[in-house]
Amino acid sequence: MKFVVVANWENGADRGDAPGEYQNWVEREHLDEKVSVRGAPDVVRRNKAGLYGVVLRHGVTDLVAFVLDPRFDFHHTYWLFTGISGVDPNVASVGSVAWARWVVDGDALREIDDRTIPKDWPYGLYAIGASRPDTLPANPNHYGSVNDVAELSKAYPLNQGLARWAYRISRTVVLSDDPEVAVRRKAWVGFPAAQKPPSVLMGETLGAKRYWHGAPRNRWAENWVKLWTKGQGLFVMTNEESQTRQGEMRTLASLGFVDANRIMVLRSGSNFSMPPPGTDVTQSMGDEGPGQAVAFDNNERAGAPVVAEILDHWERYRDHVPLAPF
Questions:
Q1: CATH number of the domain where residue 252 is located
Q2: What torsion, rounded to 10 degrees, do the Cα atoms 167, 247, 286, 19 define?
Q3: Least C-beta-crowded within 10 Å: which of 137, 230, 282, 326?
């Protein structure tokens, strides 16, 4: 097994209608053959070049069923986890695509209603075992049978050398744009990054099952990513799946089924994670509009040359993972 591209969901069919996260990969990479996997019905496709595609219609159940299928050997497999996200307007614009160095989990934490928090707190979200927001836990025993604070980490590290290598291949890719998306960018006065056309960058993805939105939570996300990456990470993308996908992949890697050093994560912005100046947060929440189509398109555009490089030179990359220096 050489390469697997993983998408989270698809609208309708996976080819021939309006695209979701999976369809551009299916059609453009000619994933014409369906592969039957017990426990993961109708989710796996492949092409003649050795690229497999998986859409997780049933969540990580599909992923596990695929990896545990004894017909496949994933010890040398490269993985590209894709998907659309909310993008931080302080960093990039809708349609932009980011290669992650960490996937940060935004689910397991303590929460106090923001209306009842101490006056000097910025928000009511903070780490389990910590005494206030934006601080790491001091006592691991607050979480049960944990002996080391490091075990509480909510940042899943990826292979940064591989991420930099992928970014360098894709950074000059011509991305698509949309006239309405371009018009909407003008509303972001005071946010120069949000007003730029789509671009390829490096930055982290924060996964949380709850769909949050707004400036206060965006501030929390920026700080949460910095906290768990010890100031090295940059919050760029927010979504609802990346933390569960990478948590499962870490388990599969620890059991010897996959190589964690060959996992890449590529997220594209379909909307902003907070409203533009002067817009009510309830009007902005969930308004992905034309940004979705651009995000679907650019995700495949940025990822495709990385897939092609590995498949075209498999003899080079089978036993040696490509790395780019800092």
A1: 3.40.50.1580
A2: 60
A3: 326
Number of domains in the chain: 1
Predicted model pTM: 0.95
In a domain, 305, yes or no: yes
Is residue 149 one of the residues assigned to a domain?
A: no
Nearest to 154 by CA among 176, 175, 130: 130
- Residues 199-228, buried b or exposed e (16+ Cβ, 10 A)? bbbbbbbbbbeeebbeeebbbbbbbbbbbb
Q: Which domain holds residue 91?
A: 3-108+154-318
Could you list the mean pLDDT of each consecutive 10-residue stretch along the chain, which spans 326 residues?
Answer: 97 90 97 95 94 96 97 98 98 98 94 97 93 86 61 87 98 97 96 98 97 97 96 97 96 97 98 96 89 97 98 97 91
Task: Give me the torsion for CA of 250, 251, 255, 256, rounded to 10°.
Answer: -30
